[in-house]
Amino acid sequence: MIKIIGIGGCGSAVNKGLSKEILNKCECILLGSRSYPVPKSENLGEIFSRLEGVSLTILVASLGCETGSKLALDIGNGLKELGLPAIAFTTLPFTLEDGIYMDRALAERLSEYLKNKVDYIKVFDSDDTLGIVPNAEDMLTSELLDVIDQQIISIIERIIERYGHKDTLSEVDTQDIGEMLTQGK
Question: pTM for the complete prediction?
Answer without folding.
Answer: 0.84
